[in-house]
Amino acid sequence: MLPFGIHLIILQTSNKIGKGKNMSKLELMEKFMQTFVGNGFHLVIRERENGFLVHTIEIMQKVDEACPVKEIPVGDYFLHLIARNQHGEEASIVCNWSQKLLQNLLDNYKTAKEAGRTHITMFRNPMTNDPNDWILSWGSPEKQTETRQATYIS
User: Which residues, including other chains, have CB under 8 Å from residue 154's CB and lie 6 or more apart?
Assistant: First the structure.
């Protein structure tokens, strides 16, 4: 059951999602959701010593002030990620990522996929406290330690 003030947005897949850089935040969220769940490519979020493999992405909307996510205005959308660490423990992660971060993840997905990689790992930039400032690296399960590219995003 969702807390008061939150609506879960179930989006049907559509071929009409914008292809350019001028997609709305909701369109970017939908494309992000379709890209990183269920197609053999994964998103891993590293936090300290743990890596969390994202297996569920939901788009949610704040409908009133009873919503526990205080940083976003009523009517705005945010992501809810469910991920599992290497010990099988699950994490529920609420993300209010910027359009720029979502677009960078999608751009890096395309490049990593072309390079034969199977996941993108996100690390918080240790130099800032900005929730939209991440370092991205790509990899494959059989080559966990090899990093193909790191991209700073802010």
Answer: 125, 128, 130, 132, 133
Domain definitions of the chain by residue range? 6-11+23-153
CA gap 110, 136 in Å, rounded:
13
Question: Which of the 8 DSSP states describes residue 3?
Answer: P
Give the global pTM: 0.75
∠110-113-117 over CA atoms, to 5°?
A: 140
35-82 pLDDT tens trace: 998 888 999 999 878 899 999 999 999 999 888 888 889 999 999 999
Please measure the distance between the N-terminal and C-terminal CA atoms of the chain and give it in whole angstroms.
34
pLDDT digits (tens, 9 = 90+) for 102-117: 999 999 999 999 999 9
The set of residues, in sequence order, having a beta carbon less than 8 Å from that of 40 and lying 6+ positions away, is 118
CA 41 – CA 109 distance, rounded (Å): 8
Distance CA 104, CA 48 (A): 22
Say how far apart CA 52 and CA 121 lie, in whole Å. 9
